[in-house]
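Schema walkthrough. Field components (list of strings):
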Amino acid sequence: MPKTQVIGQPLPRIDAVDKVRGEAVFGTDVQLPRMLLAKFLSSPHAHAEILSIDTSQAEALPGVRAVITATDIPEVDTYDPGHRFHAFLARRFVVFVGQPVAAVAADDLATAETALELISVQYRPLPAVLTLQEAILPDSPSVAHGHQTDSSESAAHGHTTVSSDKAVEKPETSPNIANRSIYAHGDVAAAFAASAVVVEHTYTVPTVHQGYIEPHAVTAHWDRANHVTVWQSVQGAFAARDLIADTLGIPRANITLNSTEIGGGFGGKIEGIFSPLAVLLAKKSGRPVKLVLTRREELIGANPAPRSVIRLKTGAKKDGTLTALEAEVLMDAGAFPSNWIMNVITTLLRNNYRFQAWRLEGMEVLTNRVSITSYRAPGGVNASFAIESQLDEIANQLGLDPLQLRLQNLALQGDLLADMQPQAWVGAKEVLMALAGHPAWTDSPPLRVGEDGLLHGRGIGMGSWGGARGPAAALAILEADGKVRIVLGTVDVSGSFTSMAQIAAEALGMSVEQVVMSKASPDYAPFAPMSAGSQTIYAMGAAVKEAALNLRAKMLKYVAEDMRVPETQLDINEKGVFVVGKPEQARSLPMVYQLGTEWFAEHGPLMGEGSARQRQPAPGMAATVAEVAVDSDTGQVFLTRLTTAQDVGQAINPLAVEGQIQGGSTQSVGLALWEEVMYDAQGRVRNPSLLDYHMATAADMPMIETIIVDTPGGDGPYGAKIVGEPSIIPPVAAVANAVAQTIGARVYDLPITPERVWRAMQAGL
Amino acid sequence: MPKTQVIGQPLPRIDAVDKVRGEAVFGTDVQLPRMLLAKFLSSPHAHAEILSIDTSQAEALPGVRAVITATDIPEVDTYDPGHRFHAFLARRFVVFVGQPVAAVAADDLATAETALELISVQYRPLPAVLTLQEAILPDSPSVAHGHQTDSSESAAHGHTTVSSDKAVEKPETSPNIANRSIYAHGDVAAAFAASAVVVEHTYTVPTVHQGYIEPHAVTAHWDRANHVTVWQSVQGAFAARDLIADTLGIPRANITLNSTEIGGGFGGKIEGIFSPLAVLLAKKSGRPVKLVLTRREELIGANPAPRSVIRLKTGAKKDGTLTALEAEVLMDAGAFPSNWIMNVITTLLRNNYRFQAWRLEGMEVLTNRVSITSYRAPGGVNASFAIESQLDEIANQLGLDPLQLRLQNLALQGDLLADMQPQAWVGAKEVLMALAGHPAWTDSPPLRVGEDGLLHGRGIGMGSWGGARGPAAALAILEADGKVRIVLGTVDVSGSFTSMAQIAAEALGMSVEQVVMSKASPDYAPFAPMSAGSQTIYAMGAAVKEAALNLRAKMLKYVAEDMRVPETQLDINEKGVFVVGKPEQARSLPMVYQLGTEWFAEHGPLMGEGSARQRQPAPGMAATVAEVAVDSDTGQVFLTRLTTAQDVGQAINPLAVEGQIQGGSTQSVGLALWEEVMYDAQGRVRNPSLLDYHMATAADMPMIETIIVDTPGGDGPYGAKIVGEPSIIPPVAAVANAVAQTIGARVYDLPITPERVWRAMQAGL
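Field assembly_structure (string):
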């Protein structure tokens, strides 16, 4: 492959100026004439029947322009009572605390808040299912019951997925098991019996919020009687439009969905689940309506990441060869099923390492808590915390080096995974070797008791993430001034437009400054997948490359005809198309544009289409070494050093890649040490503010070192692989293992709070 | 060719509901938060030097947010002092009455108007050139002088274009002849000498306004420090953007140009020449600024159609065979040259009919009047009024049927035109024959003196128009709900989107209801030519067809693979892709969409690209028969019957085509009988209101009968030819000839006012 000119250059974001100046328009910044502000009234009950809603007093309040309840929702064919999207206003039953019951649009926020107080709702409280242990009992009340009464279909169908070579049926024991999967292979009992060491524990991960800085924000405006324009902070413009279309029965052609700049999403804003409220209020009031969630509403009622309880049992031979794996995964989906994250947790327990036999049972369990959704590598942390903790314990018991233990058991290309499919090419070994040779690992371990009086230790963790690779399309259009415009429907959540400008520039043979990125709404753009699943560069970048190459080919063709020179003798740079070796024989880019636009043009306008579908997965492997200090009096853990290595293939923009690895690592440390949405016995959130919910900030972190590993694999543009998600997985386990190494005892529940550390020390010492 | 399903169906406009409800957003409807309103101060002098401008009092007026003069215009490389676009604010000299000198943006219109009164401008009046006769004198003051002082280049370069086989040089006689063209062939003197009849007259056409209902309207908003969004009532979104970019030195990527719905343009709003005022005021005020011209400002200072003085001399043999043609065309360009319209007038005098010899001299003359631009078939009426009047006079003198005289002299395919290029295929004969067999012509002529006491008569006129055929591009994108979205940058000025939806539906094999037309700004759309030159269906329609066919081909390919059926056995309808003869074996359109968007997809998203360049011209021929009644006491002319036949090839939407022919015919009647922008001796418009400037309305018109003629020719989509412009050309001459036939005398000056008719009757009888 010839050396690239633009790919691999560390570039600051092309949107940096707009953002630094505060000029970029985020969802919360949208202002329209006569715009109203919206608030919603939410359920104080985890489970109750709505007997009546009286909105008359609220409606009578001056300044209130519209009040809506479920009766305002149009009847649509696509209504699915078992889906959170359609429960944007509770119908007969409320099924979690925080579920919207009514909403108002008013001239100002104070009036809207007053109006909420004037809405009178009569509830009949019903028994709520709040714990996983309770939820899976055969006689547990059915969570789905409440919102299923309108439908004969049951979302909680409790079906069994058997994906491995040996089906193991299990009786359906509870109405709240929405989905169950079993992956089984080999003789697990025999493999355990032949093991030198067997470790078994139960690992819990709590509910956490995705932690985007900007809350959900959406503004809707019916600019014509049958057409609504929506501005929304959202990760997937097409997904957001489809949600509005399907929940409100609006034809897609009648919805313009402008995705704004977005202050983070991390999987929590893929569709922007609150948009139907704003759209419906705007319809009823006849005015533009903006809805921005408060942090409290975010923490109580948005769509956090799932908690899980994983019982895990692992065996190994004396030389460290892993033998058997047995797991039971309970994932709390909240009041509505999500289907796929539980499967990710269950299979990821198995998929990084080879085992002779395994039996993995996963259950998605419904409870009367807020429903969940993705958070950066959804389920990855849940699984990694369990298996990586257990591997460390095995290494410890066998007296083996934890990095070597991982190296010798890696599931590499061709090894069968949990679902009996062969592993793709992965850079797992290369990532571990990069750490093995790095000062983060080769430096002498910190003294157990430091000069600071704290205990010190080091730990390692590994993680993998498959990533998405959806179909994606883009256009490259030559402009009158010689710039090339890339038109695409992608939301730029993490600087991906800068990297895609690099891809386009490389393909065209121009400089990045020649490329203009145009984010188009689904009214104008060909399909773009959501900016999630780490697929933006891998999938959409491929479409951008294809579009740019197609444009380049047409430019060469047009100029070859115009100059009567063979195409093979032509090349392109930022000035124009020129004869190789004779740069004075050239057509400037504006002249090339005219070859497809002016009266004398022989051809149509110059554009290139890119419609891509990556054939190969490009899994991302990451590993982290963490060093911690522990105050033995209080149990408080201080992170002192963190190094994450990740195989990203070719880093299109190393600056952006480093930022991604540092961001993921920071979030992961937060999950390890601090974050938890805490619930009381009535299913109410106890800590719905950032004072009581400790999200990691720069002040909490040491400098995070990153190691970019570049291995082949996949068929991404210029050798790129997925980037965004893998880095959030391994630091949790690295920190947990560092703490265990430091205190000589282990915490099996996240977050690793001072109390838990102190208790573990008391028990273990 | 197989029979079409959708093409040729008369369909109401797909945007009818939005427009009838008043929901369509026109340029004047745009509202933004904190929006200011703009007014400009214009020159009271036809020619003067600006000695000083004091804006301090205006700036001090409460509510005034910005005042600009030429000193606020940034220095740009592309500055061209000889171009009207760049004279949006006068620099050192004003060169026509109405030229903007300063502009203000204020909280409301009243404040803006008051502020204008507070701006003090000191002028030194200079001699103004106001008549064509004066302008072409060798010692005439130079009109270009004023705005040329900043530049060494002279726009009034007076160069000579010789396009025929025989060059005839002429000394440059005046500084105000901006362009001169001579087309000459054969021995003119000999041909005249051999003629049985020679007719010579001078024909004048006055300045007229294009008569769009909505005035120029533009709103500009700097949404970021370096990015301006513009909403504009304009015919060419790309042209409008380029004008702003070039006059203000703004990179194209920093301009978003949203073309709004447009209340007519007819050539007068191709670029929307006032936009730099709004953009500059918005920049200076930091607020959105809207500028909407008043009718008075439109009639005084926009960009009307040119007046002309044509001396024409025609010879014919006794049998009616035309022999020689000699012409001198003076076209008044106003203060800035326009280059091409004069050539159109000059060549159109010759191009519909064969001559043995000709000498045509055209001069574009600068005067201190407002500069001119296109108006529906620019120059067509100027030429047609002269030559068609003269043909009628020849027929009359030779006692020949005027329709037959035209038939026998038609310049048909292969005949050499004024520029010695061969005539394309034209449906001229077919159009005349359609009239010849139509009751409009075969009915007994009206009694010379009717029962109403008025004089009656009938006349015929013919006209041709080449039309534009710019390169054009569009996209066809399959949507989630199975609709097909056509994305294009075209402004829909006349229902063309309905016709293009028909083209797309026909190409896809679907119904029109399945097609969604998406007008995209130049930020997202591939290049679209201006909606002018009758090219929208002919050129952009071809791109739409190509895009739809490409999409269809991909849909068939995807489904063939998915169903394992050969593509040749598949067909498409509005429900989906199905196996021919087995409609139960099908993939619904939403399923086909998923073949390019879902996880399981084998391919990228489904879209089709269309980038078209029509190779062949498809000239439009039109002919009109008019019947009039004349009050011999007052000279007033009443139009009693009008029938226009036009060759449009295949009418995509006959309803739209009829509307176009009726609209063009109505405008033409207005030009024939009523319209004239009248100037006083100081170059000031005397009738700047619709009370004094009589535009044709429905109340003035009889029902206009249309005859759609469909002949082959060109390479338009489904046999379509150009439509919009030809119908404005022949009615002027048909009415003039009907009047002449009625009163037995001829009016050589438009409009044919009662006074002129009365005077002609006095002279002729």
